[in-house]
Amino acid sequence: MSILLKFNLAMLLVFALGFAAATFLMQEILLENAKQEVGLKARIMMEAARSVRSYTVEEVRPLLRKIKTAEFLSQTVPAYAATENMKRLRKKYPDYSYKEAALNPTNPEHKAAAWEEDIIQYFRNYGEVKEYSGVRSTPTGQYLFLASPFKITNEGCLVCHSTPGAAPASMIKKYGAHNGFGWKHNEIIGAQIVNVPMAIPIERATATFTAFMIVLAGVFVAIWLVLNLLLYLIIIRRVNKIAAKSEEISKGELTAAEFDQGGKDELASLAHSLNLMYRSLSSAVKLLDKTQT
User: Residue 185 is part of which domain span?
Assistant: First the structure.
């Protein structure tokens, strides 16, 4: 097996290991970056919903309560305000969603789905947890969800949600007397849940990964070609010349030109040593010829 072949096999092994390591690391890094990007969007949506709730409680509700009407004004309810605001956002970004999911909501629209019930139950089991996120697969792709528990910390909420008898008649008229009651102080009754699609960030991560791996492969090929060229010019070609010259001398061609010892590297030193040996051999042969004659 030639030196060049051995060198190429070694380079191939090193490049294969390096390529595999780069593939694994880049996939992990880019996917993690994609998740962080999606997570940031989810947190912005969550904070936007909380801001709407806060604005409703502090600014809208006091004004609407001054209006004398027998009709129940849903606009005074923070959950309604946040949900309606996010519905308008979904008109432009339909894949994004926000829901105030509850196990026993007043408005059936807020009824938790099966997977949302699991999140609410998780918050109930681990009361110290303030945020929970994960990735779920749907027929339309992967989504990252971000959830925060909704706990009854204001006893004023129980005026409308303790018993149907204590609730405003206008609310009973609008939503009925069967849902949204029996809530207790400091009880986790639901969760704010944001869903953000991961398709676009993952597509970007995949495109970046593909481009990076193509460039990396190109760099590996370029390095391989340069190293092969340098190996041939600096070592293989000169070694072949030394081998050919040595073969001539071994056949008795003592009039052949000396080895080329140009340069200051190890092969030049080898050529210099071979030239000294060649001169000594030539002198010995000539002396032997004279002795025989």
Answer: 31-199
Which CATH number is 143's domain given?
A: 3.30.450
Has residue 46 been placed in a domain?
A: yes
50 located within any domain: yes
In tens, the pLDDT along 25-48 reads: 999 999 888 888 898 999 999 999
Cα separation, 50 vs 197, in Å, equals 20
Q: Kindly provide the residue ranges of all beta strands, DSSP E only, lying in 51-96, ordered along the sequence.
A: none
Neighbours of 199 (CB within 10 A): 13
How many angstroms from the chain centroid is the CA of residue 217?
A: 21
Compute the distance between CA of residue 101 and CA of residue 82 in angstroms, rounded to an integer. Answer: 12
Total domains, the chain: 1
Check if the beta carbon of residue 78 is closer than 8 Å to that of residue 157. no
Q: How far is it, in rounded angstroms, from Cα 233 to Cα 7?
A: 14
Specify if 162 maps to a domain. yes
**Domain-located, residue 268:** no
